[in-house]
Design goal:
6 helices, elongated, alpha+beta, two-stranded antiparallel sheet
Length: about 130
C-alpha cells in the first residue's frame, strides 16, 4: 500500500468521516485551509493508488462534478502503515494490547465472534 503524504491523509480522513460521496469542492468547504489545486492533485494521486474511487457525477451549480468515496477502510490503512513502521512487533502482541486496554464487554464479545469466524475460515482452507 502506497505511503500517503500529510495532505493525502487529511483528505482521506475527510472521506472516511463522510457518509456520502464527496467532490473536490465539498472537501474545500469542509476544510477551507486547503487549496483546491492541492485537493485535486491529491484526489488524482489517491485514485491512482486505489485509495478512492469515482462514485458518480453530480450537478454542482452550473457544472458537473465527479464525486468520490474511500475504497479502503481506515482500519486497513492503519494496519498497513503499522506493519511498515515496525516489523519487530508481532500481530499477536498488538492485538493482545488492544484487548488488554478494552473495557467494553460488548466489544470483547464481538472480537471473540470475529476470532471464531476466522478460525472456521482457516479450518475450511486447511481441510480443502
Amino acid at each position: 500500500m502506497k505511503k500517503l503524504t500529510k495532505k493525502e491523509v487529511e483528505i482521506m480522513k475527510i472521506f472516511w468521516a463522510s457518509e456520502h460521496p464527496l467532490a473536490a469542492s465539498d472537501i474545500l468547504k469542509l476544510d477551507e485551509s486547503m487549496n483546491i489545486n492541492t485537493i485535486r492533485a491529491s484526489i488524482q494521486s489517491l485514485l491512482k493508488a486505489d485509495y478512492i474511487e469515482v462514485a458518480g457525477i453530480e450537478h454542482r451549480g452550473n457544472v458537473l462534478a465527479r464525486t468520490y468515496t474511500a475504497k479502503i477502510k481506515i482500519e486497513e490503512y492503519i494496519i498497513s502503515n503499522f506493519a511498515g513502521i515496525n516489523n519487530k512487533i508481532s500481530k499477536k502482541s498488538l492485538v493482545a494490547q488492544f484487548i488488554k486496554n478494552e473495557e467494553d464487554e460488548e466489544i470483547i464479545n464481538e472480537l471473540e465472534q470475529e476470532l471464531k469466524h476466522r478460525k472456521e475460515i482457516l479450518a475450511k482452507k486447511r481441510d480443502n
